[in-house]
Structures are given as structure tokens and as C-alpha cells.
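From the pipeline queue, job 12 of 40. The input is one protein chain; the requested action is below.

Action: predict structure.
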Amino acid sequence: MRRSLPSLFLLSALCGVPAIADTRYEGKSAREWAQLLENSSSKIRGQAAKALGIIGPESVLAVPRLIGLLKDKDADVRHWTAYALSCIGPEAKEAVPALCRTLKDEDESVARMAANALGNMAPEGVKEAVPALADTLTAPDHFLRWSAARALACFGAEAKAAVPALSKGVTQDSAGMVRGQLAVTLGSIGPAAKEAVPALIEAYENDDYESVRKQAGSALKKIDPKAAAKAGVP
């Protein structure tokens, strides 16, 4: 039942909008699927969590049960539970503390989806989510680091506390895709990320990848237009 990484992000793009007009999925309502979250079969628990995610924000009634399932012994269940919370969005704000803990899940797919969920809940939970996501920027899995950076971008200027970690990573992260996203995230923070200007100039001038250099330049223009002009950003 696990999805490939590209499929996960395709699914996450649906979050925040009920997938089905009558808020039912495969003939069952959100309330009926929520009852199945307590089924003894991990397969059925996972299917129920996935269904609640597909239904979307109308599944808010299941949030307390979903929070409990983030500790399920089955990784697939935890994965689809984080997916469901991601799709419910800000209405599931009470799940923020549990999702922050889930960023350290031993299964990287689960941790990535938890990061996605925190981003979809922005600006709810900013005081807990931003530090937790910033800490995740040093995780071993580069896809998880990318997910954390992408989630931080959803908080805009509210993610100012993450600027030191973002600035360090934009020049030092080993993965080009992560460095590029870190630059984008700094740009989303705007002028509040002014301390990142030296690191972004370094990335703009020296990164091995043209795409990262362009993203760093774009971020510079959003943060400090004068510094960007001085650095030669067109």
C-alpha cells in the first residue's frame, strides 16, 4: 500500500480540498472510516486513514484517533495517518506536537509525510513546527531534508527562527535539490532573512548547479534587492 515518492507529492497536492463532493469515499462517510481506524487489521487501519485523507478537511472528526495512530506499530499505517492529517490541514492543528515527534520516525517515508503535514497546517503550530523542521534540515535522508525545507516555506516570515539553519544548508548541504529548496525557503521568508544574504551570495556565485544559483539569486532579490544588484543578480 506504500506509494512511491513522486506519488506522495502528487497526493499531497490534493490536500486542503475534499476530493469527493459528498465527502464520502467508496460508499463510506468520514465517520464510518474513522471507526475503522481501531480495526485489529493494520491493512484496514491504513486503508481507513488513506480514505480520510482523500475525503479531506471533513475528516476533522477523526483527528484525535489519527494522532494516536502516529504511534502505530505498522509503518504503512503511520504513513497514511500522517497523509490524512496533511490533507485535513489547519483544522488538525492539535496534531502538531505529535507530528513534530514523527519527524524522527524510523521510517523515512513516515517522517517525510509528517513534514508535509506540518507545512499544510501553516501558520498553525508555528512555535513548535518551525524549530522541529529546522532541526530536521540535518537529517541523513536528503528527501526528508527537502521536505522539511519545503514545509518551512509555507510559514513565510514566521519561519524566521529557522534562518540560521537554512543559511548553513544553502552552501553546505550535499544535495543540490535541497540547497535549491533552502534558497527558495529563504526567499519566502523575505527581508526577515537578511542574515542569510552572505550565504545566498556565495551560493549564487559558486554553486555547481545553475538551478541552485538561479534560486539563490531569486531569493536575494526578495530579501535584499540592493545586495542582489550589487552581486550582479539580473
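Job complete. The domain at 139-234 is CATH 1.25.10.10 (Leucine-rich Repeat Variant).
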